Records
---
Amino acid sequence: MVAEFESTDSMRSGKPLRHVQTAVFPAPMKLHLGGLLPSVEVAYETYGTLDAEGSNAVLICHAITGDSHLARHDAEDDPGWWEGLVGPGKAVDTDRLFVVCSNVLGGCRGTTGPGTINPVTGNPFGSDFPLVTVEDMVDVQKRLIDLLGIKRLRAVIGGSLGGHQTLCWATRYPEYVQTAIPIAASARVTAQAIAFDVVGRNAIQSDPHFHGGQYYDTGDFPRTGLALARMLGHITYLSSEAMTRKFDLDRHAPRDIVTDFEKRFSVGSYLAYQGKQFVGRFDANSYVAVTLAMDNFDLGDSRERRLAAFRAAQCDWLVISFSSDWLFPPSQSRELVAIMTTLGQPVSYCEIETDGGHDSFLLADDIEAFSPLVAAKLGAPQPRPPRISFEDDRILELIPPNSSVLDLGCGEGDLLGRLKERGAPLLCGVEVSTELIAATMQQGVEAIDYDLNVGLPEFDDNRFDYVVLSSTLQAVPNVERLLEEALRVGRRAIVGFTNFAHRTLREMFGLEGRAPKAPGSYSYEWYNTPNRRFPSIQDMLDLCEKMGVTVEKARYYDDTEGRIIGDDEDANLLAETALLVVSKNSG
Amino acid sequence: MVAEFESTDSMRSGKPLRHVQTAVFPAPMKLHLGGLLPSVEVAYETYGTLDAEGSNAVLICHAITGDSHLARHDAEDDPGWWEGLVGPGKAVDTDRLFVVCSNVLGGCRGTTGPGTINPVTGNPFGSDFPLVTVEDMVDVQKRLIDLLGIKRLRAVIGGSLGGHQTLCWATRYPEYVQTAIPIAASARVTAQAIAFDVVGRNAIQSDPHFHGGQYYDTGDFPRTGLALARMLGHITYLSSEAMTRKFDLDRHAPRDIVTDFEKRFSVGSYLAYQGKQFVGRFDANSYVAVTLAMDNFDLGDSRERRLAAFRAAQCDWLVISFSSDWLFPPSQSRELVAIMTTLGQPVSYCEIETDGGHDSFLLADDIEAFSPLVAAKLGAPQPRPPRISFEDDRILELIPPNSSVLDLGCGEGDLLGRLKERGAPLLCGVEVSTELIAATMQQGVEAIDYDLNVGLPEFDDNRFDYVVLSSTLQAVPNVERLLEEALRVGRRAIVGFTNFAHRTLREMFGLEGRAPKAPGSYSYEWYNTPNRRFPSIQDMLDLCEKMGVTVEKARYYDDTEGRIIGDDEDANLLAETALLVVSKNSG
């Protein structure tokens, strides 16, 4: 039962970390919103070894109540909060990467914060601590990076507030970031998330022991308010489903813990426990400072402003969200991806299916789920060689070398992998499952988790030379819109489909009066096929004509005989499958 | 801007209500969890006139911070919180119904609560007020109902905690309730909802001005804790989408209100305003008492226990939920409906599409949306006469009089309306839109909002004589499962469909090689049809054979010629449409 009460990001009790180093920057630091810090100290931990070029460093940014302790440094060490992701042979492989994690500015784990002695007064800053922002946090990390001799970051990675820092790094110091991996992040938090933080801060600041933030010499601190804020935060980190799973089997049987808080309901005792643990390891002023930094983080309230904010970025991206995260919902990650695709920035995106809520980025199972994506993005393991298939061969024949290609419904990315082998300026796949996204990324190709039933990721006009729709149109309800979109983002589209008017199918239907079946993707029964569209070649050509789409090339195949149907033959009768190269106009 | 700050259930400032009456019950009242109240007073309002039989009364139950003031009593009166639903000519028509709403036990609007003088001590109860439950609230209402001479309630209606009271009425006093309308309700609240309430109560009870609940003679009260609880509650009543809409255009421009709370962010000033308004009109001990009653309400943590709890009910039901309500999510209402359908209790259900969140039951637009359902359930306006169609004529011919019928995909309920005219023991429709649900209910027939792509509402085995699937199977992905389910809940199913192998379609496909189109539901193009299944008669017969389903009767129609295809003819070639009466076995 104790284990169940453990919080994901507070597994340690606030005791001193043995491997923390400190860097002191004695010069005054001007803050983003106008304040000034007389000097700055940074507490941080590192893993692995920096290479001679200073180019193998990964900066990891922690969330609101996290700290620099990512992982064990040795067998005796305490486990870290990203133990599953960081270490020798892990996705962030410390055998080949130099990993840095510093405690955030404004926090209470060694880096300058409200509890730090103000050198000007000789007392803790308290309420004199200036308003800090995510930009300031990143500026402090930049000083540290420079001090450590890191020339350019191989990657910046972080979840939640760490994701905000990641986004800030990529847009504020673009030339220093090769890859950015924002997890459970957003261009800015939702109004609802701010509202929860407001209530939490109000609980702290209205606690009689807060004394306007100058409580350090009173011998007490706003423990009640801080505990309330933590309880509230905790609810927002979990999904409702996860809370049901954890607390509903014994709803009316709270654990009998020592607390002044309400002792009803098992979820009540859990919250009381969490509140108590937290006040033992976190400073109330820091909680206020760091949540304010998060709430003030704002890369734009409109698409236009976000485009302006992200335009500077030079990195490639991996964006990760969690299906049950309602604090930083997946829709916010998709908004980020839409900005990146519009700007033509290389981006992979995956929404992990989980009931873990916002906390998922800290949960072992979910870390295991997104680790392969991170590993693939960081170039490990070696790309899987693409599988050869005659279907892909046919499509490859139609795509000139050095074309940029978007593959809608890319499966495991084999076609893209082969295009990559041939050399291509820009390749991207779209799929819907974590496994297929990961498989495609393992080809060394960007992959985006997106439901084509909804539409297309928001690529700019003519971003690609070719958009491939191979056995894809048949499965979507919005055929016209998807084809239109494909021809907006691509100069040409390649449409591959089974010809539903092939002779054997016509016979089956015309003579036997039964719904026809074809090999491959039409080999299902009428009542259980995943397909919902059943066009003939002529149907597809009719649609192209109606839409003003030019058919530049058409290849019709008799798969049984293994031959291409000739121009003088009745393809609509003889072809089993078809490939059309189409464009909006004959240019 | 002020208007936007108004809360949905706090439109009045706590000033005395002119039309409140008070009933005194001097006898001691034993409480559900063992406590005792020396006596009980009930403050209530009534609208309309009780008829001579005492049979036209509707009891409306209010939510946590609501009160008895449903609607204006006269032109000078303040508006009430259900002004849109209750009044002359409204859905709850006070021209023909006698409407009663009493303030809840434990509250602070006149009915006995923690602020009431304890006759034993001469001081307010404060922390001596015993733990009350929803059952106790209902028991007090029962005393009032008896006093008013009401023999049986035409209906009990309520949202949120009012919905809990409604469910409690129907199961605790089954013989007194003809119709129950629980809105945004649940068999018990989620673990997440309890968690939010725990934090709210902790904020109140840890406020130094709480004094263990004995603050009435201190000249002060836990205003900070109560305000925090209210702020938090408010967030849970709104959807994230609604908060974005309300507060994100001017996120960083808070209204400059007088408050000791945080003054950042527009949503922050809104919460501060709500907190301030609330502490001026609500008692902290009542907030604790009433939220505890809600959290303790529990009609079972498993399906078996819920079945046991609801088995006693004798009413018919209208269950209403709101799509964006995450505090009482629609899934909880569907759980209730599943219990009712399993038990064979007449139930209609509708999920209203809205971004209003839990508060939707108080919002004018949403009230307008669900009013027709309430009106139809209460027998007004007069049922719409069903439209005659030859398709329905054909189905009617196949259903013997006095059969019970479930119509899956019932449209506007015309077939059910005609069955009702003929007389039928049990009729029910299933549809997916509020408009079609309302239209079917206006036929005087139960209708359930349910996505057949997911499955069927959980009717007990053989609940119906006939299940009608008219042009329905073609639109679902799970054909086999839906047909299986139809034959589980019904003794027979009537499957109506367009024959995709009709001669003209075969010709179109076989000779022209184009996806065929038929009149009616197949008159779409291949790329935009809502259908996803295209069976011929023979396909459907094959499926029946494979599934072990007996075809008892088959009627095949040439719609163009207006004739029935004879037994000696090739129906699969000649019929445009087909109706099959099928059953699991030949019995």
Note: Residues 382-583 of chain B form a domain with the Rossmann fold fold (CATH 3.40.50.150).
---
Amino acid sequence: MSFKLTILGCSSATPTLYRHSSAQILNVNERLFLIDCGEGAQTQMRKFKIKFQRIDNIFISHLHGDHYLGLMGLLFTFHLLGRTKEIHIYSDPGLKKIIDMQIEISKANLLYPLIFHSIDSAKSKVIYNDDIITVRTIHMDHRIPTVGFLFTEKPKERKIRKEVIEKMQIPVKEYEKIKKGSDFTDARGKLYKNDELTISGPKPVSYACCSDTGYTESYIPLIKGADMLYHEATFMQDKLKNAREKFHCTSIDAATIALKAGVKQLMIGHYSARYNDLNPLLEEAKTVFENTILADEGVVYNI
Amino acid sequence: MSFKLTILGCSSATPTLYRHSSAQILNVNERLFLIDCGEGAQTQMRKFKIKFQRIDNIFISHLHGDHYLGLMGLLFTFHLLGRTKEIHIYSDPGLKKIIDMQIEISKANLLYPLIFHSIDSAKSKVIYNDDIITVRTIHMDHRIPTVGFLFTEKPKERKIRKEVIEKMQIPVKEYEKIKKGSDFTDARGKLYKNDELTISGPKPVSYACCSDTGYTESYIPLIKGADMLYHEATFMQDKLKNAREKFHCTSIDAATIALKAGVKQLMIGHYSARYNDLNPLLEEAKTVFENTILADEGVVYNI
């Protein structure tokens, strides 16, 4: 399965000349999921040649402007380009009011069905589920209701232990059931438990996106062992007071979460506009969690 | 008086990789007026080094997304950068609802007063007035309530006819009153009418901004003789049917208005995303009105 992440925007609060407001595209086997949609996201997608009409699901973490103000423009663009395929939006119910009001006032009559899924940020829930992936919310600690998102590949089929199964001459038509976990009873009535016949399949890939949030360890169990954790690191540690006051994290906070959750890789982002050079944030995070990288707009990361 | 126009965005409907949604900055003697505020306007202002905290008045022509979707982001940025000076917004009352709802949902507590002035698009009215300029709405013919804006310099003082006034030995302290139009009575009681003493001052500069609109000659009297007319020219003449259906203009329409209104210069803009090369639109307009130029983002035009 391919899990590719493209960062469209990694700035916090205000866009800068070089960094845009929060938005990401997660491409799972060519299904495109948009995570947050700050101002300018549609232009970033054009720039990075992302076929944005293929987005069917949009996840908005919370209703601070830097995470959703590019959405209306994108929804109008979908319409103007003749989209008829439905689009699903997952967010705080306030966003539905904001969208509905603007559609009404502009007298737009969208060509496509817009299906809104309200998120209750109070607890973690599976909000999306298809044949290859599930998306679960992660409760964040921010000034207004906010969630992160955990994208997890569906558990893979178990692998048949070839040497065992061949020796036993199990008919090929039984293989699919066994891969899915069934036991097997042979012609003489002897039962073989599934774990005699198979080994577990490869570990499902997972991507956790945590922005915006103050420091909290509450969601560590949920993101345990994720292949990639995107975590906000708005400030460096010398601005810890600012971070605490504003319900944001420092690069040390983000790295501490990554360490405690035992993730494979940490990507920091949501940088304050005050930082031109981001390397000090990276170096600081690495003192706690070595496998840290900087979110960089337009780069495609294979998870 | 200096009248400088910077185009921040000249695309219609959807932004493209090279053109942004509608937005303009008019700089009148270093007072900055923002006309429309499509998505990305704040980033364009950073790019063109416009000191956007000096904007005090924002005029929004109508509530199609490409003319206002950059406004919320700019308003939040003003706040985040610590603005305390009031900001005035002039638009259809629907915009106030859109702004208020988003401020409420994001729990923003703006540091500055936001003063909203509702525009009744049905008739042309003076909506702004200071010591150097007036702004008047222009009724446009579009699918939803829409206005253009006419910026006119205040009438300049009359010029004293030096040869007359010196011969008569009028005291210098009387000059200011005479320049403002007063008559003068000398020591012997003889009255001199003002037009014996003065000639009219230079013609006030004016800038008319007409976007979006279908073709109508209704506002020609209002914009007569303007120094610069920005007029939408969404399509070329071969798309006249599209233009009429969508209440937009062709380049020939825009040039016809310019010709009939006897303006000094026409700037066309609000180009459909289908045009990569804009020169055919320019050439077409010039067949009707020679002194036409293309709106180009970032260029500063002296009016």
Note: Chain B has two domains: 3-156+202-302, 159-199.
---
Amino acid sequence: MQSEKIRVAVDAMGGDNAPDSQVRGAVLAAEERPGSLEVILVGRKALIEKHLAKSGAELSNLSVVNADDVVTMEDTPSEAFKTKPESSLNIALNLQKDKKADALISAGNTGAVLTFSTLKLGRIEGISRPTIGSIFPSWKDITMVIDVGATVDCRPNNLLEYAVMGSVYMNYIHNIDNPRIGLLSIGEEKSKGNELTFEAYKLLENSGLNFIGNVEGRDILKGTANVVVCDGFVGNVVLKLAESVLDLLKNKFRQFSEKSLWHKFRVALAYPTLKKIVQDFNYEEFGGVPLLGVNGVSIIGHGKSTPLAIKNMIFKAEETVRKQVNSKIKKILETYNK
Amino acid sequence: MQSEKIRVAVDAMGGDNAPDSQVRGAVLAAEERPGSLEVILVGRKALIEKHLAKSGAELSNLSVVNADDVVTMEDTPSEAFKTKPESSLNIALNLQKDKKADALISAGNTGAVLTFSTLKLGRIEGISRPTIGSIFPSWKDITMVIDVGATVDCRPNNLLEYAVMGSVYMNYIHNIDNPRIGLLSIGEEKSKGNELTFEAYKLLENSGLNFIGNVEGRDILKGTANVVVCDGFVGNVVLKLAESVLDLLKNKFRQFSEKSLWHKFRVALAYPTLKKIVQDFNYEEFGGVPLLGVNGVSIIGHGKSTPLAIKNMIFKAEETVRKQVNSKIKKILETYNK
């Protein structure tokens, strides 16, 4: 498989700027890696071809597969799964199921990507719940928080599985040797936490992973651990809070600059610096977040994904397939059941 | 009571800079409000008097009560409660119990202040769990997140009680009419959340409070709600994450400035502006956070509290007593049991 081209199906209709960003991102990716990548745009064919014509690209490693329907941001995932078999998301996953594609990327309805992928591709043996991890900037490097909303009311074994999946992902995709795993809690001591963390702590201690114990909210941005495992409820709150920090700062800068011309001048001097410094917070550059635990490859992007973000997602998908992340997860899980 | 002086007992030995910050903060408060405040420093008398002598203050509304022992940051609260009856925290609470003081402020071990206060003062009728709320900066104004760690694994009625206490506190102490109450969850829709939020939602809907429904992580800094209620596990993670944002920014500024002289120059220009803008994030200026639900007044401060922070905590304590926050909480709770 290593030398063959990796075939990435792009849900061309999912996302706020679809299909424009999707088509342009797909073109960028196909152009940059003609020898290793095949990109398949899935969606309303006439519309996609109009956008392709605009781009002027003629690429032999880029093709279009028609899908008449679209899963919208407002759709309820389970409902859409029943009623929208002709959606771009579903048809793109059919390609993967039928071995006509190796991976999916989508910037559409996150819940739908999770539901459709789980139901279409199934789960990796030994995984009870697929999960979504998200990459945070930190002092040292980057930190993955996992789960960020796929499963609320987790059981302890879910957290153990997240740790395994996060560890493999950070190891093979982000090249971190023996990733440090932290359990998100309210104090460093083993005795601090809730019912879920007490039980999960015991499982993680005996997991063979590089478990460093409990970490706290402040450790996420410090980079104390490479992988921070938590219940999807907590992780989702944490993700959305972190994403909003930049908005708050921008807003405060605006308020400050409106006070006087002198204030405006100081902000003008400060703003480019701040912008440069905090670009680490730009989640889209990480190329989407992986849906881990499904028997296939699905990469989920921000609804607002730019063409650059789409390109990076496609590259991330290729990498995830090439590095056989799933079989590595499976291998670790097998040792637990011996 | 309105015209009488309010007597605030200061745990002079609790906190990283104790008793220096405590003594200086107490002097500031007593000097500024000679007609309305009586400040009682509780701790090692000889040591405190040495610090008082250094300050040169001679104030008739400032006194010292001796306590030989100290609860440290490392002490386990329940253990310390049994073994340290002579601690400054315990003796300060005895004053309140014996009606010789109206309130306590402490920048010491938060868990110990919670445990000692609950056991010494008891709970307000109708409150099952005392709670700690914390004030966050936001786009518009400020937001209280409640609970931030007093109780993990909450039950739905705990969240209802937090909403009542937070509403009264924001109304009377922060002068917000009919505070908007939000339930922290993973989506705005009623159908998004976990088992706890589904049940709590029903209670809040029928509470008579100004309940605006679910809010998300991003809403905390946006100020969508004035009071955000959540389980203490989630609230604690959120608080510590938010507190760490400034550290990350400072760290990134430092890294950036170390690149070259030109970078250093730009940071020098940017830093004061940024500092001014983000001073809202300075939690200490809010004058500590209230421990709500106990039958008395306890204000908890950061371990690192400065004299200014201590002064503000003393003022906050006075205000909480004068405005009879507890009896207002009790009154709302009574309507639920009719």
Note: DSSP finds twelve helices and eleven strands in chain A.
